[in-house]
Amino acid sequence: MYALIDCNNFYASCERAFNPALKLKPLVVLSNNDGCVIARSDEAKQLGIAMGAPYFKIKAEVAARGIEVRSSNYELYGDMSRRVMDILRRLAPSIEIYSIDEAFCDLTGLSSAALLELGRTMRETILQWTGIPTSVGIARTKTLAKAASKQAKLMGGVFAILDERERERLLQAMPLRRVWGIGRRLETSLENAGIFTAADLVRKDDAWIRRRMSITGLRTVHELRGIPCIDLDDQPASKLSITTSRMFGHPVHTIEELSQAVAHYVTRAAEKLRGEKRKTRYLDVFFHSSPFKSPYHAGRAAYALPAPTDFTPTLLQYAMAGVRAQYREGVAYTKAGIMLSDFVARGEEQLSLLQAPADEREETMMEMLDYINRRWGKHTMFYAGAGVQQGWSMKRNFRSPSYSTRLTDVLEIG
Ligand SMILES: [Mg+2]
Protein backbone atom coordinates (compact mmCIF):
# COMPACT_ATOMS: atom_id res chain seq x y z
CA MET A 1 0.00 0.00 0.00
CA TYR A 2 1.10 3.51 -0.76
CA ALA A 3 0.21 6.81 0.82
CA LEU A 4 0.62 10.05 -1.06
CA ILE A 5 0.99 13.09 1.14
CA ASP A 6 0.33 16.27 -0.79
CA CYS A 7 0.67 19.73 0.74
CA ASN A 8 -2.34 21.88 -0.09
CA ASN A 9 -1.58 25.04 -2.10
CA PHE A 10 1.96 24.58 -0.90
CA TYR A 11 3.61 27.93 -1.67
CA ALA A 12 0.57 29.85 -0.46
CA SER A 13 0.44 27.72 2.70
CA CYS A 14 4.15 28.41 3.39
CA GLU A 15 3.49 32.15 3.20
CA ARG A 16 0.61 31.77 5.61
CA ALA A 17 2.51 29.64 8.09
CA PHE A 18 4.61 32.67 9.02
CA ASN A 19 1.96 35.30 8.59
CA PRO A 20 -1.34 34.36 10.21
CA ALA A 21 -2.86 37.64 9.00
CA LEU A 22 -2.97 35.98 5.57
CA LYS A 23 -5.21 33.17 6.80
CA LEU A 24 -8.60 33.09 5.07
CA LYS A 25 -7.52 35.88 2.73
CA PRO A 26 -7.24 35.26 -0.99
CA LEU A 27 -3.55 34.95 -1.75
CA VAL A 28 -1.49 34.34 -4.87
CA VAL A 29 2.22 33.62 -5.29
CA LEU A 30 4.01 34.78 -8.44
CA SER A 31 6.81 33.12 -10.40
CA ASN A 32 10.21 34.76 -10.52
CA ASN A 33 10.33 38.33 -11.78
CA ASP A 34 6.68 38.40 -10.68
CA GLY A 35 5.67 36.96 -14.03
CA CYS A 36 2.62 34.80 -13.45
CA VAL A 37 0.57 33.03 -10.80
CA ILE A 38 2.14 29.77 -9.62
CA ALA A 39 0.12 29.17 -6.45
CA ARG A 40 -3.26 30.20 -5.16
CA SER A 41 -5.02 29.87 -1.84
CA ASP A 42 -8.48 28.28 -1.96
CA GLU A 43 -10.02 31.74 -1.63
CA ALA A 44 -8.12 33.00 -4.68
CA LYS A 45 -9.22 29.92 -6.64
CA GLN A 46 -12.82 30.65 -5.74
CA LEU A 47 -12.43 34.17 -7.10
CA GLY A 48 -11.53 32.63 -10.42
CA ILE A 49 -7.82 33.53 -10.53
CA ALA A 50 -6.34 31.07 -13.02
CA MET A 51 -3.15 29.10 -12.53
CA GLY A 52 -0.45 30.60 -14.75
CA ALA A 53 -2.30 33.89 -15.22
CA PRO A 54 0.19 36.67 -16.11
CA TYR A 55 0.33 39.16 -13.29
CA PHE A 56 0.09 42.26 -15.47
CA LYS A 57 -3.25 41.00 -16.80
CA ILE A 58 -4.86 40.46 -13.41
CA LYS A 59 -3.25 43.38 -11.61
CA ALA A 60 -6.41 45.52 -11.58
CA GLU A 61 -8.59 42.65 -10.44
CA VAL A 62 -6.14 41.72 -7.71
CA ALA A 63 -6.21 45.25 -6.34
CA ALA A 64 -9.99 45.60 -6.63
CA ARG A 65 -10.69 42.35 -4.80
CA GLY A 66 -8.07 42.78 -2.11
CA ILE A 67 -6.08 39.71 -3.13
CA GLU A 68 -2.74 39.42 -1.36
CA VAL A 69 0.29 38.98 -3.62
CA ARG A 70 3.68 37.47 -2.80
CA SER A 71 6.77 36.95 -4.92
CA SER A 72 8.06 33.41 -4.75
CA ASN A 73 10.52 32.64 -1.99
CA TYR A 74 12.19 29.34 -2.80
CA GLU A 75 14.46 29.42 0.23
CA LEU A 76 11.36 29.37 2.40
CA TYR A 77 9.53 26.73 0.36
CA GLY A 78 12.58 24.50 0.18
CA ASP A 79 13.06 24.67 3.90
CA MET A 80 9.39 24.04 4.69
CA SER A 81 9.48 21.10 2.30
CA ARG A 82 12.44 19.65 4.19
CA ARG A 83 10.55 19.98 7.48
CA VAL A 84 7.50 18.21 6.11
CA MET A 85 9.66 15.39 4.70
CA ASP A 86 11.55 15.05 7.99
CA ILE A 87 8.27 14.53 9.82
CA LEU A 88 7.17 11.87 7.33
CA ARG A 89 10.51 10.14 7.69
CA ARG A 90 9.89 9.80 11.42
CA LEU A 91 6.40 8.41 10.94
CA ALA A 92 6.77 6.06 7.98
CA PRO A 93 9.28 3.27 7.39
CA SER A 94 10.14 4.41 3.88
CA ILE A 95 9.43 7.64 2.05
CA GLU A 96 10.11 8.74 -1.47
CA ILE A 97 10.05 12.45 -2.18
CA TYR A 98 8.12 13.00 -5.39
CA SER A 99 8.20 16.78 -5.58
CA ILE A 100 8.73 19.81 -3.42
CA ASP A 101 5.31 19.30 -1.82
CA GLU A 102 4.54 15.62 -2.26
CA ALA A 103 5.90 12.32 -1.03
CA PHE A 104 4.95 8.68 -1.33
CA CYS A 105 5.22 6.40 1.68
CA ASP A 106 5.33 2.65 1.36
CA LEU A 107 2.94 1.33 3.99
CA THR A 108 2.78 -2.29 2.95
CA GLY A 109 1.78 -4.62 5.74
CA LEU A 110 -0.50 -2.33 7.74
CA SER A 111 -4.15 -3.18 8.43
CA SER A 112 -6.91 -0.95 7.04
CA ALA A 113 -7.51 0.60 10.44
CA ALA A 114 -3.80 1.21 10.97
CA LEU A 115 -3.49 2.81 7.52
CA LEU A 116 -6.21 5.34 8.23
CA GLU A 117 -4.84 6.01 11.69
CA LEU A 118 -1.33 6.65 10.34
CA GLY A 119 -2.72 8.87 7.59
CA ARG A 120 -4.47 11.00 10.17
CA THR A 121 -1.39 11.14 12.38
CA MET A 122 0.74 12.32 9.44
CA ARG A 123 -1.72 15.03 8.58
CA GLU A 124 -2.14 16.26 12.13
CA THR A 125 1.56 16.20 12.95
CA ILE A 126 2.53 18.11 9.82
CA LEU A 127 -0.17 20.69 10.46
CA GLN A 128 0.81 21.13 14.08
CA TRP A 129 4.58 21.25 13.58
CA THR A 130 4.76 23.28 10.36
CA GLY A 131 1.33 24.89 9.86
CA ILE A 132 1.01 23.28 6.40
CA PRO A 133 -2.30 21.57 5.62
CA THR A 134 -2.01 18.33 3.63
CA SER A 135 -4.18 15.78 1.87
CA VAL A 136 -3.39 12.12 2.33
CA GLY A 137 -4.45 9.50 -0.21
CA ILE A 138 -3.95 5.81 0.45
CA ALA A 139 -4.27 2.99 -2.09
CA ARG A 140 -2.67 -0.04 -3.65
CA THR A 141 -0.81 1.77 -6.43
CA LYS A 142 0.81 5.18 -6.74
CA THR A 143 -1.64 6.32 -9.41
CA LEU A 144 -4.58 5.35 -7.20
CA ALA A 145 -2.95 6.96 -4.15
CA LYS A 146 -2.63 10.12 -6.18
CA ALA A 147 -6.32 9.92 -7.11
CA ALA A 148 -7.23 9.27 -3.47
CA SER A 149 -5.28 12.34 -2.38
CA LYS A 150 -7.33 14.50 -4.76
CA GLN A 151 -10.46 13.08 -3.19
CA ALA A 152 -8.96 13.74 0.24
CA LYS A 153 -8.35 17.33 -0.75
CA LEU A 154 -12.01 17.81 -1.66
CA MET A 155 -13.07 16.32 1.65
CA GLY A 156 -10.34 17.92 3.67
CA GLY A 157 -8.38 15.06 5.17
CA VAL A 158 -7.49 11.46 4.56
CA PHE A 159 -9.01 9.22 1.91
CA ALA A 160 -8.22 5.56 1.40
CA ILE A 161 -9.20 3.18 -1.35
CA LEU A 162 -9.41 -0.05 0.59
CA ASP A 163 -11.71 -2.20 -1.51
CA GLU A 164 -12.85 -2.77 -5.09
CA ARG A 165 -16.16 -0.94 -4.73
CA GLU A 166 -14.42 2.15 -3.47
CA ARG A 167 -11.97 2.01 -6.35
CA GLU A 168 -14.71 1.68 -8.96
CA ARG A 169 -16.75 4.49 -7.48
CA LEU A 170 -13.75 6.81 -7.51
CA LEU A 171 -12.80 5.97 -11.10
CA GLN A 172 -16.35 6.62 -12.26
CA ALA A 173 -16.30 10.10 -10.77
CA MET A 174 -12.83 10.87 -12.09
CA PRO A 175 -12.44 12.94 -15.25
CA LEU A 176 -9.41 12.00 -17.34
CA ARG A 177 -7.53 15.20 -16.64
CA ARG A 178 -7.37 14.27 -12.98
CA VAL A 179 -5.54 11.02 -13.73
CA TRP A 180 -1.84 11.22 -12.88
CA GLY A 181 0.11 11.28 -16.14
CA ILE A 182 -2.73 12.19 -18.49
CA GLY A 183 -2.15 15.60 -19.99
CA ARG A 184 -4.56 17.84 -21.78
CA ARG A 185 -3.64 16.68 -25.27
CA LEU A 186 -4.12 13.01 -24.42
CA GLU A 187 -7.40 13.87 -22.72
CA THR A 188 -8.75 15.47 -25.89
CA SER A 189 -7.71 12.54 -28.05
CA LEU A 190 -9.34 10.07 -25.64
CA GLU A 191 -12.49 12.13 -25.43
CA ASN A 192 -12.72 12.00 -29.20
CA ALA A 193 -12.70 8.23 -28.84
CA GLY A 194 -15.62 8.41 -26.43
CA ILE A 195 -13.68 8.03 -23.18
CA PHE A 196 -14.47 10.55 -20.49
CA THR A 197 -13.70 9.05 -17.12
CA ALA A 198 -11.01 6.85 -15.60
CA ALA A 199 -13.65 4.11 -15.40
CA ASP A 200 -14.21 4.26 -19.19
CA LEU A 201 -10.48 3.99 -19.70
CA VAL A 202 -9.81 0.90 -17.58
CA ARG A 203 -12.52 -1.00 -19.50
CA LYS A 204 -10.57 -0.72 -22.78
CA ASP A 205 -8.32 -3.61 -23.72
CA ASP A 206 -4.55 -3.43 -23.45
CA ALA A 207 -3.78 -3.49 -27.16
CA TRP A 208 -6.08 -0.53 -27.79
CA ILE A 209 -4.56 1.44 -24.92
CA ARG A 210 -1.04 0.73 -26.03
CA ARG A 211 -1.79 1.93 -29.51
CA ARG A 212 -3.41 5.14 -28.30
CA MET A 213 -1.33 5.94 -25.26
CA SER A 214 2.00 4.08 -25.63
CA ILE A 215 3.57 1.91 -22.98
CA THR A 216 3.57 4.74 -20.44
CA GLY A 217 -0.20 5.07 -20.78
CA LEU A 218 -0.65 1.34 -20.43
CA ARG A 219 1.25 1.46 -17.14
CA THR A 220 -1.08 4.19 -15.92
CA VAL A 221 -4.14 2.08 -16.81
CA HIS A 222 -2.72 -0.97 -15.03
CA GLU A 223 -2.15 1.17 -11.98
CA LEU A 224 -5.74 2.40 -12.12
CA ARG A 225 -6.80 -1.24 -12.17
CA GLY A 226 -4.86 -1.79 -8.97
CA ILE A 227 -1.70 -3.41 -10.34
CA PRO A 228 1.44 -1.54 -9.22
CA CYS A 229 3.84 -0.98 -12.11
CA ILE A 230 5.21 2.56 -11.96
CA ASP A 231 8.70 2.69 -10.56
CA LEU A 232 10.80 5.73 -9.81
CA ASP A 233 11.99 6.32 -13.34
CA ASP A 234 8.57 6.09 -14.99
CA GLN A 235 6.86 8.61 -12.77
CA PRO A 236 5.17 11.46 -14.60
CA ALA A 237 7.01 14.74 -14.14
CA SER A 238 5.86 17.17 -11.51
CA LYS A 239 5.32 20.76 -12.60
CA LEU A 240 6.79 22.31 -9.49
CA SER A 241 10.02 20.41 -9.15
CA ILE A 242 12.23 17.58 -10.34
CA THR A 243 13.40 15.13 -7.74
CA THR A 244 15.77 12.23 -8.09
CA SER A 245 16.43 10.35 -4.95
CA ARG A 246 16.91 6.77 -4.01
CA MET A 247 17.71 4.45 -1.19
CA PHE A 248 21.28 3.08 -1.31
CA GLY A 249 21.87 -0.64 -1.78
CA HIS A 250 24.09 -0.58 1.29
CA PRO A 251 24.94 2.16 3.83
CA VAL A 252 27.44 4.70 2.55
CA HIS A 253 30.17 5.89 4.95
CA THR A 254 32.66 7.83 2.88
CA ILE A 255 32.36 11.25 1.33
CA GLU A 256 33.67 9.82 -1.96
CA GLU A 257 30.84 7.35 -2.27
CA LEU A 258 28.27 9.89 -1.15
CA SER A 259 29.56 12.40 -3.71
CA GLN A 260 29.35 9.80 -6.45
CA ALA A 261 25.76 8.96 -5.64
CA VAL A 262 24.78 12.63 -5.53
CA ALA A 263 26.62 13.30 -8.81
CA HIS A 264 24.65 10.48 -10.38
CA TYR A 265 21.33 11.97 -9.23
CA VAL A 266 22.34 15.43 -10.43
CA THR A 267 23.12 14.03 -13.87
CA ARG A 268 19.72 12.32 -14.04
CA ALA A 269 17.84 15.38 -12.81
CA ALA A 270 19.64 17.65 -15.28
CA GLU A 271 18.76 15.26 -18.08
CA LYS A 272 15.08 15.40 -17.13
CA LEU A 273 15.28 19.17 -16.90
CA ARG A 274 16.64 19.48 -20.42
CA GLY A 275 14.11 16.93 -21.65
CA GLU A 276 11.37 19.27 -20.46
CA LYS A 277 13.10 22.32 -21.97
CA ARG A 278 13.34 24.01 -18.62
CA LYS A 279 16.08 25.68 -16.63
CA THR A 280 16.33 25.75 -12.87
CA ARG A 281 17.24 28.43 -10.39
CA TYR A 282 17.10 26.40 -7.23
CA LEU A 283 19.04 23.31 -6.27
CA ASP A 284 18.53 21.34 -3.12
CA VAL A 285 20.79 18.46 -2.15
CA PHE A 286 19.93 16.17 0.74
CA PHE A 287 21.11 12.94 2.33
CA HIS A 288 20.39 11.17 5.56
CA SER A 289 20.99 8.06 7.61
CA SER A 290 18.29 5.76 8.93
CA PRO A 291 16.15 7.58 11.52
CA PHE A 292 15.97 4.31 13.45
CA LYS A 293 19.74 4.07 13.95
CA SER A 294 22.13 6.26 15.84
CA PRO A 295 23.92 8.48 15.05
CA TYR A 296 21.15 9.92 12.92
CA HIS A 297 22.13 12.73 10.62
CA ALA A 298 20.24 14.54 7.88
CA GLY A 299 22.34 16.87 5.76
CA ARG A 300 20.84 19.39 3.41
CA ALA A 301 22.11 22.34 1.43
CA ALA A 302 20.07 24.52 -0.85
CA TYR A 303 21.28 27.05 -3.38
CA ALA A 304 19.50 29.85 -5.18
CA LEU A 305 21.49 29.93 -8.41
CA PRO A 306 22.66 33.28 -9.80
CA ALA A 307 21.11 32.51 -13.20
CA PRO A 308 18.77 29.81 -14.53
CA THR A 309 20.74 26.84 -15.85
CA ASP A 310 20.40 23.35 -17.30
CA PHE A 311 24.16 22.76 -17.58
CA THR A 312 25.16 19.62 -15.71
CA PRO A 313 28.66 20.80 -14.65
CA THR A 314 27.25 23.93 -13.02
CA LEU A 315 24.66 21.90 -11.11
CA LEU A 316 27.33 19.39 -10.10
CA GLN A 317 29.50 22.15 -8.75
CA TYR A 318 26.78 23.33 -6.35
CA ALA A 319 25.70 19.84 -5.35
CA MET A 320 29.27 18.84 -4.53
CA ALA A 321 29.75 21.96 -2.43
CA GLY A 322 26.61 20.93 -0.55
CA VAL A 323 27.94 17.46 0.11
CA ARG A 324 31.26 18.82 1.35
CA ALA A 325 29.56 21.29 3.66
CA GLN A 326 27.08 18.85 5.19
CA TYR A 327 28.80 15.46 5.24
CA ARG A 328 29.60 14.06 8.67
CA GLU A 329 32.12 11.38 9.33
CA GLY A 330 31.00 8.23 11.13
CA VAL A 331 27.44 8.33 9.79
CA ALA A 332 25.98 5.46 7.77
CA TYR A 333 24.02 7.28 5.07
CA THR A 334 21.14 5.33 3.54
CA LYS A 335 19.64 7.76 1.07
CA ALA A 336 20.46 10.86 -0.93
CA GLY A 337 18.70 13.01 -3.45
CA ILE A 338 18.49 16.17 -5.46
CA MET A 339 15.61 18.50 -5.99
CA LEU A 340 15.45 21.20 -8.63
CA SER A 341 12.75 23.87 -8.64
CA ASP A 342 12.06 27.48 -9.56
CA PHE A 343 11.93 26.82 -13.27
CA VAL A 344 11.93 29.01 -16.32
CA ALA A 345 11.21 27.82 -19.82
CA ARG A 346 14.37 27.61 -21.91
CA GLY A 347 14.72 30.75 -23.98
CA GLU A 348 12.57 32.79 -21.62
CA GLU A 349 15.12 33.30 -18.89
CA GLN A 350 16.02 36.78 -17.90
CA LEU A 351 19.75 37.28 -17.91
CA SER A 352 21.50 38.88 -15.04
CA LEU A 353 23.61 41.95 -15.77
CA LEU A 354 26.56 40.36 -14.07
CA GLN A 355 26.22 37.05 -15.82
CA ALA A 356 27.61 36.24 -19.22
CA PRO A 357 24.90 34.79 -21.49
CA ALA A 358 24.87 31.00 -21.70
CA ASP A 359 27.69 29.68 -23.81
CA GLU A 360 26.41 28.03 -26.98
CA ARG A 361 29.08 25.39 -26.70
CA GLU A 362 27.66 24.37 -23.34
CA GLU A 363 24.28 23.85 -24.94
CA THR A 364 25.70 21.79 -27.78
CA MET A 365 27.67 19.70 -25.33
CA MET A 366 24.55 18.87 -23.29
CA GLU A 367 22.58 18.12 -26.45
CA MET A 368 25.26 15.65 -27.53
CA LEU A 369 25.37 14.05 -24.09
CA ASP A 370 21.59 13.54 -24.02
CA TYR A 371 21.56 12.32 -27.60
CA ILE A 372 24.23 9.71 -26.94
CA ASN A 373 22.49 8.43 -23.83
CA ARG A 374 19.14 8.25 -25.60
CA ARG A 375 20.60 6.52 -28.59
CA TRP A 376 22.94 4.07 -26.89
CA GLY A 377 21.28 3.62 -23.50
CA LYS A 378 21.44 5.32 -20.11
CA HIS A 379 24.92 5.89 -18.68
CA THR A 380 26.68 5.32 -21.99
CA MET A 381 28.38 8.61 -21.34
CA PHE A 382 28.55 9.97 -17.83
CA TYR A 383 30.48 12.25 -15.52
CA ALA A 384 33.44 10.62 -13.86
CA GLY A 385 32.24 12.20 -10.63
CA ALA A 386 29.35 9.74 -10.60
CA GLY A 387 31.82 6.88 -10.23
CA VAL A 388 32.34 3.75 -12.24
CA GLN A 389 31.70 1.09 -9.62
CA GLN A 390 28.56 2.59 -8.07
CA GLY A 391 28.59 0.28 -5.07
CA TRP A 392 25.90 2.42 -3.46
CA SER A 393 23.38 1.80 -6.21
CA MET A 394 20.26 -0.29 -5.70
CA LYS A 395 20.68 -3.88 -4.67
CA ARG A 396 20.41 -6.01 -7.74
CA ASN A 397 22.05 -9.14 -6.45
CA PHE A 398 19.58 -11.38 -8.17
CA ARG A 399 19.64 -9.84 -11.57
CA SER A 400 20.84 -12.00 -14.41
CA PRO A 401 23.80 -10.76 -16.46
CA SER A 402 23.12 -8.45 -19.39
CA TYR A 403 24.04 -11.18 -21.84
CA SER A 404 23.10 -9.33 -24.95
CA THR A 405 23.96 -5.70 -24.24
CA ARG A 406 27.10 -5.67 -22.16
CA LEU A 407 30.44 -6.87 -23.41
CA THR A 408 31.58 -8.05 -19.98
CA ASP A 409 28.45 -10.17 -19.62
CA VAL A 410 28.67 -12.01 -22.92
CA LEU A 411 28.47 -15.78 -22.47
CA GLU A 412 31.81 -17.54 -22.68
CA ILE A 413 32.10 -21.04 -24.04
CA GLY A 414 35.08 -23.23 -23.44
MG1 LIG B 1 0.24 20.21 -3.60
In short:
It contains 13 helices and twelve strands.
Structural Rg: 22 Å
End-to-end separation: 48 Å
Strand percentage, roughly? 15-25%
Q: Number of helix segments?
A: 13
Helix/strand order: EHEEHHEHEEHEHEHHHHEHEEHEH
Strand order of the largest sheet: 5-6-1-7-8
Bound molecules: magnesium ion
* Mean of pLDDT: 88
Taken from the alpha-carbon principal axes, the silhouette is globular
DSSP, total strands: 12
The percent range for helix content is 40-55%
Give a quick account of the main beta sheet: strands, pairing sense, barrel closure.
5 strands, mixed
Q: What structural category arises from helix and sheet content?
A: alpha+beta
Characterise this structure.
The protein has 414 residues and is an alpha+beta fold. Helix content is 41%, strand content 21%. It has 13 helices and 12 strands. The chain has helices at residues 10-17, 42-46, 55-65, 74-91, 112-130, 142-155, 164-172, 184-192, 198-203, 206-224, 255-275, 312-326, 360-376; strands at 2-7, 27-30, 37-40, 68-71, 95-99, 102-106, 134-139, 158-160, 241-252, 278-289, 298-309, 333-345. The strands form 3 sheets. It has a 5-stranded mixed β-sheet. Strands 9-12-10-11 form a 4-stranded antiparallel β-sheet, sandwiched between helices. It has a 3-stranded mixed β-sheet with strand order 3-2-4. Helix 11 packs antiparallel against helix 12. It starts with a strand and ends in a 38-residue tail after the last helix. The site of magnesium ion has 4 residues, from strand 1.
